[in-house]
Amino acid sequence: MADIAELDTAPETIEAELSYLADTGEKLVTQVAEPGGRDQRQGGDSETHRVKIHNGRPLASRFEFEREGFRFVDSGTTVGNFFDEDEIRRVYYPECEALIQRVSGAKRVVVFDHTLRTASDQQRESQKIRDIVSRVHNDYTEWSGPQRVRDVMAEEAEALLRGRFAIIQVWRPINHPVESHPLAICDAQTVRPETLVVNERHYQNRVGQTYAITYDPGQRWYWFPQMRPDESLVFKVYESLRDGRARWTAHTAFADPSAPPHARPRESIEIRTLAFF
User: Fold this and answer.
1) Among 170, 167, 100, CA closest to 140
2) How far is CA 191 from the centre of its chain?
3) Which of 28, 47, 74, 92 is the most exposed place for a label (fewest CB within 10 A)?
4) At residue 166, what are phi and psi to the nearest 5 degrees?
5) How far is 198 from 43, CA to CA, in rounded Å?
6) CA pair distance 18, 54, nearest whole angstrom
7) 215 with 50: CB under 8 angstroms?
């Protein structure tokens, strides 16, 4: 585990290269690979920008879920093996539902998906899990947010869509602290609608949408150095209300220039939920 002294000496800011969409006007389509493979993107180009990223640890108590769109929380788990599908569903899903209710104030939370990721090509292929995502994005759009409710909630969906709902995720390192490719997350108040570009995601059994995001120097980015498996980022990727509160929380993995030599590949799990208020 990263000790407290190391965390106290982590820099206040770093500069790192983030990968953005270079919008060419072409339709964006991603063919989603089976676990163990790599997604294939069509349309648009990528461009990198050197961005200042702020250390969020000293600021964690100041972040507000409905303003910045995320909270960094201590959140232990009783899961013993994150590669045990049954244990994740039986133990981790209820843990995350309770955590999101506590952070967001939602009356009801329904987990509908989880994804294990690794920065190790060998582990990705051998354990059939997904690659890290190293391009700035948001996971849902104006269309795909409500559509996910319809996909998941079936006959309840239309009644639920008449009320407020959000799609909220929990991101956690597993097995060891993050030494490489941490998650950078953007203050939702600095994500302008003009930077959001629809990206269709084609799965074997459905079509979804995410937002690819273009560069904006006004974006304000954070990371949490050496995140541990007993810490989580809870963040919002869709919000049905349009009253100025956080709606989209851009995020991306990035190559940390302060990573130690021979850093272990990052391993993580993300949980996706529907939250009803």
Assistant:
1) 167
2) 15
3) 74
4) -140, 160
5) 11
6) 14
7) no
DSSP state of 143: T
| Residue owning tokens 């063919």 | 31
The structure tokens listed for 124 are 């990705």
Give the neighbor-by-neighbor strand order of the sheet with 108-118: 70-74, 231-239, 165-173, 267-276, 108-118, 130-131
**Residue 32 main-chain phi, psi, to 5 deg:** -80, 125
Distance in angstroms (rounded) separating the CA atoms of residues 104 and 70: 10
Within 10 Å of residue 193's Cβ, how many Cβ atoms? 9
Q: Cβ neighbours of residue 17 under 8 Å, at least 6 residues apart?
A: 48, 49, 50, 51, 254, 255
pLDDT tens sequence across 157-167: 999 999 999 99
Residue with tokens 């939702």: 188
Strands (E), 67-206: 70-74, 108-118, 130-131, 137-138, 165-173, 183-186, 196-202
d(CA 247, CA 121): 33
